[in-house]
Sequence to fold (245 residues):
Amino acid sequence: MVHQLLTTEYLFWLVALAFYFLDSIKLVSKSQILIIETITGKFKPSFSFNTFEIKGQQVQLLNLFFPFTGFFRLDSSPNQSPSLNFENTRQELVKLQQMVLPFKLISIISFVYLLIGPVLTFYYGLGATLLFLLPLHLTSLLILLTLLLISRKKFDFTYGVIASIFFDCLVVPAYLPNIVRKIFSKKVFLCDGYFFALNTCLNKDREELEYNITRKIAQMSDYQEDFEPKKNELYLKLLGIKYDK
Fold:
């Protein structure tokens, strides 16, 4: 009887953690690159060369321990100048990082009580734990809604977008730790992904980055029926990557 009770209580947290895990999985098309924010506020590309796909898109998992870091997808643009919109994108990201700072605090707090929930349940039971955490969660939701409404014009969000973000976190509490990522996902940046990665990386990482980009472009070409090697060669040169036949 006790064993069954404990199983039922912990099932609540297992479901919550499952929702959190699934919300951290992102799909990236073959012509896109995933850019993730590090804990220091820098941006770095994330590459995936696995063959597992969902609806033709590659599956990538964001860092589960730093949900307060943002992410965004950038397209590769071989048919235009790679440097187009780079400066604007970088400036917009700096502004976005400043605007999401209050939301990072909400993310950290909600992530902490998501982790300590099972521990408190072990000592005090699920009922007492929820009575303790529910006011904290409701307060976080209220602050979230207030911040979203106050920052609506700065983010250039419609009321519909705000309602969508808030409704997700209201219905599924485990989504709240990913609030910063949800805000980032609503923004669209028109910049060549590989050019952005190359021009924001550290010098010591450039060689590895160039190799991964070359490999990624070659992988993308495998799915192009009208693939022309010369186009990729020119694209790599525009990116500043030495092309080796």
